[in-house]
């Protein structure tokens, strides 16, 4: 009796990637190039193969192991992020909160006054653009979702929000849990 090995697909990986008309995708083995109106991206994939149709790309796993299924879903989402990035782009917003905290942008270098004895300088990579609004609101845009997230995390890491007063750099809409401070005057006098 011969048993057939059934290939179990990732639920995420089964969904096809829809390619808009203004985006061109070139697949050369495991290397994919995506070009659109906002820019171009390329990446080498591992553990997946691609089947390109008219306006749709289907991602298939190379093998039916646990790792193969994980790479199937990952490869599909990375390809979708590339297509969405070159067609619509990605955006992350940060708020600088604190008395006297402010930012200035000169070219690709951000100058932050965030409570240290010296200004902090942060240089953005060429793929990430920054706009400063009202001295305390940063808008970062890029076609590369992975790089944008890493750069936003690096900027936030310069002065993460502290839990007592909430001062620092945080993502717009991020909720920082506040801790109670000292209970002033509740302990009585020392004798």
Any overview of this molecule?
The chain is of the alpha+beta class. It has two domains: about 10-85, Outer Surface Protein A, domain 3 (Alpha-Beta Complex), CATH 3.90.930.12; about 90-170, Ribosomal protein L6 (Outer Surface Protein A, domain 3). Helix content is about 20%, strand content about 35%. It has three helices and 13 strands. The chain has helices at about 10-15, 65-85, 145-155, and strands at about 15-20, 25-30, 30-35, 40-45, 50, 55-60, 90-95, 100-105, 110-115, 120-125, 130-135, 135-140, 170. Strands 11-12-7-13 form a four-stranded antiparallel beta sheet, with helices on one face. Strands 1-6-5 form a three-stranded antiparallel beta sheet. Strands 2-3-4 form a three-stranded antiparallel beta sheet, with helices on one face. Strand 2 (about 25-30) and strand 3 (about 30-35) form a beta hairpin. It is elongated and about 60 Å long. The mean pLDDT is about 85.
């Amino acid at each position: 009796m011969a048993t057939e090995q059934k290939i179990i697909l990732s639920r995420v990986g089964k969904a096809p990637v829809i390619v808009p008309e203004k985006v061109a995708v070139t697949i050369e083995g495991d290397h994919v190039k995506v070009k659109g109106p906002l820019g171009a991206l390329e990446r080498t994939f591992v553990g997946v193969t691609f089947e390109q149709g008219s306006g749709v790309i289907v991602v298939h796993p190379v093998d039916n192991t646990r790792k193969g299924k994980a790479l199937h879903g990952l490869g599909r989402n990375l390809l979708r992020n590339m297509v969405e990035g070159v067609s619509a782009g990605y955006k992350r917003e940060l708020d600088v909160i604190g008395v006297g905290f402010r930012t200035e942008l000169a070219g690709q270098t951000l100058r932050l006054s965030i409570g240290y004895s010296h200004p902090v300088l942060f240089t953005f990579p060429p793929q990430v653009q920054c706009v400063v609004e009202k001295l305390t609101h940063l808008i970062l845009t890029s076609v590369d979702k992975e790089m944008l997230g890493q750069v936003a995390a690096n900027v936030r890491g310069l002065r993460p929000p502290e839990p007592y007063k909430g001062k620092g750099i945080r993502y717009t809409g991020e909720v920082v849990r506040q801790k109670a401070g000292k209970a002033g005057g509740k302990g009585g006098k020392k004798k």
